[in-house]
């Protein structure tokens, strides 16, 4: 049994669940999930409901049974009043529960709004210009080449745009400061460390430098 209250697009269902209805819902869940609750001394899926509840807690089927009952209630509401179709997940609030009166819950959700489809035929759509310039293609190719490039060791002096592995140690006032001992440095023209770049260009491998 349920009552419905509508507030704009919000639906509020007050659902009264009798003890008999609740017991049927719990038993339905038990029948469909008993294989998931092994009990020592019983074959899989053969443990009685009361035994499972004793071993796993008396409320072991509570959440699934409540969801089962609420789903059925909302399905019944939609069968009688299709315009109350939910647009959001229902929120369930337990209002009361006792052995004499059963259980009362409140279900609230936003329903699909009523709207009219406006005229959409005969509209003019401006298609954006998708022409790609040659410069953009070249830039994309260079980017892909850079992203997928591999390193090959060469035996010659360092040249511009080379990448060099440098064993680097820095000192400040005679004390070594924190920093990478070994760094991978790409000697591009845009390199901000201009002094370092200018001193590395033309250097043979394995040569030591001291920069002040």
Anisotropy-based shape: elongated
Report strand order across the widest sheet: 1-2-4-3
Query: Number of helix segments?
Result: 5
Please give the domain count: 2
Largest sheet: number of strands, sense, barrel closure = 4 strands, antiparallel
Rg calculated over all Cα atoms: 37 Å
Strand content: 15-25%
CATH homologous superfamily of the largest domain, by name? Trigger factor ribosome-binding domain
Properties at a glance:
212 residues; alpha+beta; Alpha-Beta Plaits; two-stranded antiparallel ribbon; 5 helices; 8 strands; 30% helix; elongated
Q: Any overview of this molecule?
A:
- The protein is built from five helices and eight strands, in the order ββαααββαββββα.
- It is of the alpha+beta class.
- The strands form three sheets. It has a four-stranded antiparallel sheet with strand order 1-2-4-3.
- α1 crosses α3 (62-80).
What is the fold's blueprint, element by element?
Blueprint lengths: L1 E6 L2 E8 L1 H15 L15 H8 L5 H19 L10 E8 L3 E9 L23 H14 L15 E5 L3 E2 L2 E2 L5 E5 L7 H7 L12
Helix pairs in contact: 1-3
How would you summarize this macromolecular structure in one to three sentences?
This protein is α+β, with helices and mostly antiparallel strands and 212 residues long. It has helices at residues 19-33, 49-56, 62-80, 134-147, 194-200; strands at 2-7, 10-17, 91-98, 102-110, 163-167, 171-172, 175-176, 182-186. The relative contact order is 0.10.
